[in-house]
Amino acid sequence: MFGCCGCCSALRPRYKRLVDNIFPVNPEDGLVKSNMEKLTFYSLSSPDKLDRIGEYLYQKATKDINRKRYKLAEIAMEAMDLLLQACHAQTTLNLFVESFLRMVQKLLEDSNPNLKIMATNSFVKFANINEDTPSYHRRYDFFISKFSSMCHSDAASLRDSLRLAGIKGLQGVIRKTVSDDLVENIWEAQHMEKIVPSLLFNMQSGDLTPVEDATNVTPPALAEEVLRELVGRASFGHIRSVLKPLLTHLDRHELWVPNTFAIHTFRIVMISIQPQYSYTVVETLMQHLDNNFKSSPKTRTSLAVVLSKIIAIAAGESVGPSALDIINNLLTHLRTSVSTTSEITPEESQYQEALINALGEFANHHPDYQKIEIMLFIMNTVPDLSKKSKGDQMLQNILLKSLLKVGTQYSTVSFEKAFPASFLQPLLKMARAPHDPTRMVVMQIFQALLDRHQNEKVLSSVSVKPYPALSQEPPSRSDIIFTHKYGANIMQALIDSMALSDRVDALSSSYNTAALLIVEMSCNETVQEFLLFILGIQQVASTTETLGTVHKCNLHIIAIGLLVLISRVSGINNLLDYAQKIVDARREEASHYLPPLLEPKKMANKSLNLSLPHLAIDKLALGECLQNAGMDAQRLNTGAPYALNQTDHPGHRHSWVESVSNQLTQRNSSADLTVYNGDVDSVSSSPGVCKKLLAPEFNFDAMKRALAEPTEAAKRELRERQMQIVRTFREGEFDDLMRRTEPKHDLIQNRLNELFNSLAVERQITQSDTKAAQLQASNEKPIYETNFPELFYY
């Protein structure tokens, strides 16, 4: 019988004999190395037999697994690994791989954990091999499902090893399929819904800190590494396939509150994703926030916090419309939050603050020019003051807080750039809002943009004492021009704001803004306008009957505080001495006219004397102080202090018709009763061209100012001159008026005579005969030698 078996074995194919010889008599001895080398050499020399060798090994392993002879199955798997490594360059490898994958699948299906781990390791080795010829029919559905289930293993023994094996298997599938577009598309939802939750499950099951020792990798650390690789390999069209199951997993397992794990996960995504696709993550998270608008405020707040933590990473790659799109989405969420709640609860307020912080973080990573665009965009979304409902006031407040958040991130260099007319005009309107919190937020916006030297906290309280920590530098030429152009409008808005409420915090905020305005813009050219502003505050306190007693006292306190401040920052000692005399006198007679500001509730039962005109700031005395200091005081002496509710038009450019009408107003017989100017040059006859007086210094800036539009201060001076003219006509004697206007009447008569004479000459020429006309035409001078009438001389 033995001889018969020997004869039968000799008749078997050689590859089968070589395969049989690698198995030892005792399975514990392991693979027979010498015989394995022979099998490898045969496979390399006869590659056409490789697929048969693989099929035979698979059959033997299947029998051994069914008979529970796991050692022999492990030897078969080891032999398959060695053959795969040695013959991976063969063109017939695809047929062998089919047997190899069937072998791996067979081991994974068994309940023995050791076989699963071994099969996974074999698959990982296969995944690291680059095949020259891809297989179009190969599918990995089973491996994705099996490896994902291993990631969730709760086996009492080898739990971590099985989870590690499952994560490694998923990593192998990702590497094998992502790099080849011809194989199965792993980005399909059915696959991502298994891979991503499996990785997240392991990440949340332990410490998220990566382990430095590579030999002792934990499932959370490896899962994080695989997630980074998966996100890093995702293209623009596939990144949403990863984010959707990620968000679903966080929702199902309620991982938003607390949001530590969510923040960690999204940071991994943002750091790993290709930079140009980071905007997609922010957009997807915002859409998810839209879908959860009915969720609890805590959940929405956590979502908004996650958004604020990652949005800064995306800001660097968002430019132009994409940046404004993100801002618009955040503002939409804020509006939705305000419109859906009648009362703002603390939780809802936290949600709104989280959205505002996200907006601020996003804007902080943009250049300053884009921050201005963002602020202008937000300003255009604020409801108009005509809408006075409670919801609109809440929305105004929230949107202005968003604007403030962006403003605090902006570094002001030039006020002209920080306050463009399209931004300043609506902001000044909001400064007159009837809602106190809204006005205070507007004041904070002004403070954030005006404060270039960190003086906001120093000037937060009204004081007549020196500010030791005050930082100051002279304003630039562009800032002075900005003050001439818009300073009057800002100060007018401040006066209107101060008169609207007697709340101490609101008045302190307005004082802080005015003080910063003075510190940043005060110089010899602007000090007179600021003094008129201070006199305006005092005049409002003295003449406005609707204000309360405490309110009037506080306005007087603000006025003296600003006077002392401008005296110190401008360095005018005469003005400082005068201000100090007023302070000393008030300290003796009326301490309620000195800082600090008075609380209306505390002073309700106290009588305060307001009939103290000798303690008021005197306009003539201020003018004398400036003159004694060698400064021009004409604007202060002739100008009227600011008053309530004066209209302003920041940045308004006059049309041609307005220029002509203003010019005609200046040229009529009552334009100037004190000075007669006999200059009749023809510049006044050209529409839209006004004669400008040149500045004493003839440089580029002086010429530019001469050609510029009249400033608000110049307009105020013109109105005052016109009022003076009206008073002169009303109060002056008739003979004096005749004497002053007579020369101009003679001038008009002379011009009319010249006009009639020219018409008579023209009529005589037209009546002459044709020959004489032709003769005259032949003898007249060339056109370039024609003498123009005096009317066109310049």
UniProtKB/TrEMBL annotation:
The gene is stmA. Pfam families: EFR3_ARM (PF21052). Belongs to the EFR3 family. This is Protein EFR3 homolog cmp44E isoform X3.
